[in-house]
């Protein structure tokens, strides 16, 4: 875990930003008026569990909205509204909670930093840009499309705009998250990331209330996934595992059970707690907050609590 946070960024990426450190800062419009990109509640290292909400951010820079082809309500379609608030009861049990204040449509931290569709930019594209299949489809760290494959932008962006978003939003989020996990691992010899998301109804998967994603058993111990599943089912929720959401970049990158680092993605059906058409909480909000608190309480009962000891995965 030595230099864990800095290990996220390859040398070519660091060199690129060193060369551009003072250049084109004006191409990150709206940032001065923005809140800090990352918010933290709780104390690092207070326990072996870390809570995260990477997609509940709702600060949309004015220049971004003006440059977009789609209206704000469409841009918000992928937003995991209120998930950070749903987690407050669970955070009160002790685990720190980190959440992004910016929206995923602006910069998606659940993708690799340079997973970009180069066709959406003009100018020279650095060699370290490495799009995945999803990136090429327009769903990279700087998305090209939003709901129903609608194009976000009116025209191509300068590549420097993407680079600055990665520097000022993606990097701070991952540096902070890595630091939290490092603190937990150092204190307890074990850490578990619960990556919290919300989802629209998924009839193709039987309309579950929760989807637990552990990358098909590779990012989290089966025991902990079972605890989560059994707890939710005991509370009366319908669950699915890995379908249609197995976990994104965050789950894959931080879930390393062989080194006592575990990551479990938890998707919650939006209809459980809000009116999707208006994005307003309804009477189910408090009940889901309580359910999430009970879930985390049960998980905490199955993870190491002794400090400065070496543990095998549960």
Number of helices: 10
Distance between the termini: 20 Å
- Helix-strand topology string: HEEHHHHEEHEEEHEEHEHEEEH
Shape: globular
The main β sheet shows up as: 7 strands, mixed
Portion of residues in beta strands equals 15-25%
The structural class is alpha/beta
Number of DSSP strand runs:
13
Fraction in helix:
25-40%
**Sheet with the most strands: spatial strand order:** 1-3-2-8-11-9-10
Q: What radius of gyration results from the CA coordinates?
A: 19 Å
Unreliable parts: 22-32
Mean pLDDT: 90
Describe the structure.
By secondary structure, the protein is an alpha/beta fold. The radius of gyration is 19 Å and the shape is globular. It is 31% helix and 16% strand. Helix 8 packs antiparallel against helix 10. Residues 22-32 have low confidence and may be disordered.
Features of the shown structure:
single chain; 314 residues; alpha/beta; seven-stranded mixed sheet; two-stranded parallel ribbon; 10 helices
In short, what is this structure?
The protein is built from ten helices and 13 strands.
Helix and strand topology:
Blueprint: H1 11-19, E1 38-41, E2 49-53, H2 62-67, H3 72-75, H4 83-86, H5 88-91, E3 97-100, E4 121-122, H6 133-136, E5 145-146, E6 150-151, E7 157-158, H7 159-188, E8 191-199, E9 210-213, H8 222-234, E10 239-241, H9 249-254, E11 261-269, E12 274-275, E13 280-281, H10 284-300
Parallel strand pairs: 2-3, 2-8, 4-7, 8-11, 9-10
Antiparallel strand pairs: 1-3, 5-6, 9-11, 12-13
Helix pairs in contact: 8-10
């Amino acid at each position: 875990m030595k230099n864990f946070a800095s290990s996220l960024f390859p040398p070519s990426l660091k060199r690129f930003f060193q060369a551009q450190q003072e250049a084109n800062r004006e191409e990150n419009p709206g940032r001065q008026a923005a809140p800090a990109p990352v918010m933290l509640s709780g104390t690092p290292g207070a326990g072996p569990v870390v809570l995260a909400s990477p997609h509940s951010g709702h600060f949309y820079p004015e220049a971004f909205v003006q440059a977009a082809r789609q209206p704000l309500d469409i841009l918000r379609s992928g937003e995991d509204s209120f998930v950070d608030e749903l987690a407050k009861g669970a955070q009160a049990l002790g685990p720190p909670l980190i959440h992004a204040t910016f929206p995923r449509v602006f910069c998606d931290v659940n993708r690799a930093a340079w997973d970009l569709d180069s066709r959406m930019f003009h100018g020279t594209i650095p060699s370290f840009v490495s799009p995945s299949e999803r990136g090429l489809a327009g769903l990279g760290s700087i998305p090209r499309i939003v709901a129903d494959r609608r194009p976000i932008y009116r025209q191509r962006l300068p590549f420097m705009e993407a680079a600055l978003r990665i520097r000022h939003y993606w990097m701070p989020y991952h540096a902070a998250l890595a630091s939290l996990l490092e603190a937990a691992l150092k204190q307890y010899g074990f850490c578990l990331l619960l990556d919290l998301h919300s989802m629209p109804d998924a009839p193709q998967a039987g309309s579950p209330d929760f989807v637990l994603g552990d990358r098909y058993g590779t990012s989290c111990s089966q025991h902990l996934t079972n605890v989560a599943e059994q707890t939710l089912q005991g509370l009366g929720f319908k669950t699915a595992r890995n379908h249609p959401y197995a976990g994104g970049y965050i789950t894959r990158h931080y879930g390393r059970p062989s080194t006592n680092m575990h990551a479990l993605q938890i998707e919650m059906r939006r209809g459980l707690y809000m009116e999707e058409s208006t994005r307003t909480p309804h009477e189910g909000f408090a009940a889901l907050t309580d359910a999430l608190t009970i879930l985390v309480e049960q998980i905490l009962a199955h993870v190491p609590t002794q400090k400065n000891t070496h543990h095998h995965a549960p």
